[in-house]
Amino acid sequence: MDVAVARKRLEEVRDELDRSVAVLGRSDQRSERGTDYPQDSADIGTNLAETDRSDAMLEAAQSRRVLVLDALRRLDEGRYGVCVDCGKPVPESRLKARPEAARCLKCQAAWDHVRR
Ligand SMILES: [Zn+2]
Q1: What's the CA-to-centroid distance between 110 and ligand 1, angstroms?
Q2: I need a labelling partner for 50 at 20 to 30 A (CA). Which of 40, 73, 81, 100 fits?
Q3: Is residue 100 exposed (0-12), middle (13-18) or buried (19+ Cβ within 10 Å)?
């Protein structure tokens, strides 16, 4: 994995996420949700689903952004592309799909399992 290529890729992802977070965060102008939504209105049901979806997207963008920034830091420290858990190289195919990946697939699966 070429470090310059990896950096460019990560910076592109970061910029894209910055934009997503800005857009999604700005549209976040609802009042409190939940208890007093009429359950039988199709329109409101749609709006609520819409809100939940952009909430989930915002959350996903923010947490991915953290991973991307972390990957950029590892790149600066010369530790990019090495699994943070087992120290083995993260396969390049995985880094292509997820340039921010900090773990090989095996350690990621174990990590996801622990967090769940
Ligand atoms: Zn590993």
Answers
A1: 9
A2: 100
A3: buried
Rounded to whole angstroms, the Cα distance separating 57 from 62 reads 8
CA–centroid distance, residue 86 to ligand 1 (Å): 4
What is the distance in A from the centroid of ligand 1 to the CA of 65? 21
Total-model pTM:
0.76
pLDDT digits (tens, 9 = 90+) for 37-73: 555 556 666 676 778 888 999 999 999 999 999 999 9
* Domain boundaries defined on the chain: 3-32+42-115
Helix (H, G, I), strand (E, B) or coil at 3: helix
Using DSSP, state whether 36 is helix, strand or coil. Answer: coil
